[in-house]
Amino acid sequence: MNRLEAPKIITELESTGKEVIVTKNGKPVAFIRPVEENAFELKTKRRNVE
User: Fold this and answer.
1) How far is residue 25's CA from residue 28's CA, in Å, rounded to a whole number?
2) Which of 3, 7, 39, 45 could form a disulfide with 35 if both were Cys (CB 3.0 to 4.6 A apart)?
């Protein structure tokens, strides 16, 4: 997968809901699967670090 293919794969993943295995030289290197919006929560508050 190169930078130009990544958006296409993500769009396909969103529309089909199917998992994707990314390979490099025929060997699996990444597993991408869709997640629901409420699957995790991003923390927006920052700690005060001195």
Assistant:
1) 8
2) 39
Cβ contact 29:21 at 8 Å: no
Q: Which helix (H) or strand (E) holds 45?
A: none
Tokens representing residue 5 in the block? 């293919």
Q: Measure the N-to-C terminal CA separation of the chain; round to a whole number of Å.
A: 42
Q: Are 41 and 18 in contact (CB under 8 A)?
A: no
- Segment (H or E) for 31: strand 27-32
Alpha carbon distance 17, 5 (integer Å): 18
At 3-42, the pLDDT tens digits run 788 899 889 999 999 999 988 899 999 999 998 877 777 7
